[in-house]
TrEMBL record:
Alphabetized Gene3D superfamilies for the sequence: VSR Endonuclease (3.40.960.10)
Spans through the membrane: none
Name under which the protein is recorded: DUF559 domain-containing protein
Entries under Pfam families matching the protein: DUF559
Originating organism: Methylorubrum podarium
Residue ranges occupied by any DUF559 domain in the UniProt entry: 14-121
Region (Disordered): 128-150
Length: 150
């Protein structure tokens, strides 16, 4: 019998912790969430406090494989910086792009944060979920039958 953990197998403890984190959002996270929830930001769908075992991402956009972390003062200790660096290295090895912003930056210049996130999504070449739902017009071509072999 195979004893290896399944991809992103999340323990009940980690799931409970993520749920608690969603209930008690700091001000900077709540402000950011208002900008991205429900596909409000360029049609990209974000989720908050998402378990990506063995970690929890503050915010996650699956279509761009983008993790956004909003770090408060607790992340300023040497020990926490080392842990965050190891975590980011692991997430990057899994194909995720990790962007970190301080709570101070989110609260003082949310526009710059949103610009950086928009650029990252664009640079990764991932279309928004909304653009995938829109069918091209017949005049534009590019539909299913446009590449027919003759």
């Amino acid at each position: 019998m195979d004893k290896r953990p399944k991809l992103n197998e999340v323990s009940p403890r980690l799931r409970r912790f993520a749920r608690a984190q969603r209930r008690d959002m700091p001000r900077a996270e709540a402000l950011f969430w208002e900008q991205v929830r429900g596909g409000r930001f360029r049609g990209a769908k974000f989720k908050r406090q998402v378990p990506i075992a063995p970690f929890i991402a503050d915010f996650f956009c699956a279509s761009a494989k983008l993790v956004v972390e909003i770090d408060g003062p607790v992340h300023e200790t040497d020990d926490r910086r080392r842990r965050d660096e190891a975590r980011d290295t692991w997430l990057t090895a899994q194909g995720f792009l990790v962007l970190r912003f301080s709570t101070d930056l989110v609260l003082s210049n949310l526009g710059a944060v949103m610009d950086a996130i928009g650029a990252a999504i664009e640079d990764r070449g991932f279309p928004s979920p909304a653009s995938l739902r829109e069918a091209p017009s017949p005049a534009e071509g590019g539909g299913f039958f446009a590449s027919r072999i003759e």
